[in-house]
Write a structure and sequence with these properties.
By secondary structure, the protein is α/β, with parallel strands linked by helices. The protein folds into two domains: about 30-375, Alpha-Beta Barrel (TIM Barrel); about 380-430, no CATH class. It has 16 helices and twelve strands. Helix 3 packs parallel to helix 5, helix 5 (about 110-130) runs parallel beside helix 6 and helix 6 (about 160-180) packs parallel to helix 7 (about 200-220). The longest helix has 28 residues, at about 350-375. The chain binds D-xylulose (XUL) and cobalt (II) ion. The site of cobalt (II) ion (CO) has 4 residues, from loops. Cobalt (II) ion binds near residues 231, 267, 295 and 338.
């Protein structure tokens, strides 16, 4: 144990009546929910970037955190950072974590040097993982921070950047596989545009489609068994991002023949930025068969940008897990806290508290969602609302044509009778569980 989290004991479940701020009050990993351990439903992951690589800067001021591993430009400090990160994993006991290449290694003078730094840290992680239970939920490449990516990665007008991106993703997929990662994520923060005046959108989309096909080909070539995930977000940092939301991503995947190969990593805050609720994105992905994993971090509803805060709204989280449970669960996906502290939250204990609170809120949401599934009230209401479609006549209509339907409507045999959608009654029902 390094001294960074000194005097902080491993966090354990003490139940809802405990007043210990560093205990789980609702997250009880071994508790059985709908026949499965809570830990196996939620599959929590810590995001290395926000917890350890972000220095507390914002557009108006630089770093506030001043961690022992800052500045992050040398291998020695990259290892001190890793030591603190794995200490936090030991304290929290969450089963997974995630990284970008740039979070964990210093940038080198050229590709080969960056790669060598990266591989050394991956081996260092491998040694740490060999002595603990923590696993890699996903790896990903940061192809948005360094200035080379300012006009995109696979969508860059410069083919040299496309090549550099391909080499970067190959290295990150190799490392993800080496550490036994369960998924590989692509989030394209600069895969979009600032102005259409300098952008050939059709060409950029074709390049992005070709690139993702190369990712899938490489996955099969190396025998990576994890899922390839694309993470939708409508804008920020680009003015407009091509992976706008779940429906847009699905259209893209279909156009480039990838809808059976690639799923989505949906983020709560990104859904809100796209003008949706999180459950809208979850229900869309579920209906289209591409629900993969989630980033469970919220935005501030007033500020209008991606504030990446830990979740703290149980009713919202409950509806999200309701749709996840209805979809059959997260599979080999998980609940990643792509969440960062506020920049005034300087103390190491704040990092622990943020995660403990997020895990408890998710546990409460999951339990409420499971209670709604088990009670069946929402499902019964749906069954009743669509029951007209269970009749033989309605099914035959789907196999008929406009002329046949027209004749039965004209004869008066069919005459719609409007019925209540019961929204208030259903909202009241949900409130009984949250
Ligand atoms: C950015 C974001 C990323 C991805 C991984 O908004 O969500 O951190 O999750 O690149
Ligand atoms: Co994210």
């Amino acid at each position: 144990m390094t001294s960074f989290f000194k005097d902080i004991a491993p966090v354990t479940y003490e139940g809802p009546d405990s007043t210990n701020p560093l205990a789980y009050h609702h997250y009880n990993p071994d508790e059985i929910v709908m026949g499965k351990r809570m830990e196996d439903h939620l599959r929590f992951a810590v995001a290395y970037w926000h917890s350890f690589a972000w220095e507390g800067g914002d557009p108006f001021g630089a770093s506030t955190f001043e961690r022992p591993w800052h500045p992050q430009d040398d291998m020695g400090r990259a290892k001190i950072k890793a030591d603190a990160a794995f200490d936090m994993f030991d304290i929290l006991g969450q089963p997974y974590y995630c990284w970008h290449d740039a979070d964990i290694r210093p940038e080198g003078a050229n590709f080969a040097e960056s790669l060598s730094n990266f591989e050394e840290i991956i081996d260092y992680f491998g040694e740490k993982m060999a002595t603990r239970d923590v696993k890699l939920l996903w790896g990903t490449a940061n192809m948005f921070s360094h200035r080379r990516w300012m006009a995109g990665a696979s969508t860059n007008p410069d083919p040299d950047v496309f090549a550099y991106s391909a080499a970067t993703v190959k290295a990150c997929m190799d490392a993800t596989m080496k550490l036994g990662g369960q998924n590989y994520v692509l989030w394209g923060g600069r895969e979009g545009y600032e102005t259409l005046l300098n952008t050939d959108m059709g060409r950029e989309l074709d390049h992005m489609g070709r690139f993702l096909n190369m990712v899938v080909d490489y996955k099969h070539k190396i025998g990576f068994e994890g899922t390839i995930l694309v993470e939708p977000k409508p804008q920020e940092p680009s003015k407009h991002q091509y992976d706008y939301d779940a429906a847009t991503c699905f259209g893209f995947l279909q156009k480039y023949g990838l809808e059976k190969e690639v799923k989505l990593n949906l983020e709560q805050g990104h859904a809100i930025l796209a003008g949706h609720s999180f459950e809208h994105e979850l229900a869309t992905a579920s209906a289209l068969g591409v629900l993969g994993s989630i980033d469970m971090n919220r935005n501030d509803y007033q500020s209008g940008w991606d504030t990446d805060q830990f979740p703290n709204n149980v009713p919202e989280v409950a509806l999200a897990y309701y749709h996840i449970l209805k979809a059959g669960g997260l599979g080999n996906g998980g609940t990643n806290f792509d969440a960062k502290l506020r920049r005034q939250s300087l103390d190491p204990v704040d990092l622990i508290a943020g995660h403990v609170g997020g895990m408890d809120v998710c546990a409460r949401g999951l339990k409420a969602a499971a209670a709604m599934v088990e009670d069946g009230g929402l499902e019964d209401a749906l069954t009743e609302r669509y029951s007209g479609w269970d009749t033989k006549g309605a099914q035959l209509m789907l196999d008929s044509d406009f002329d046949t339907i027209f004749a039965s409507v004209l004869s008066g045999e069919i005459a719609p009778q409007p019925q209540s959608g019961r929204q208030e009654r259903l909202e009241n029902y949900v409130n009984r569980f949250v």
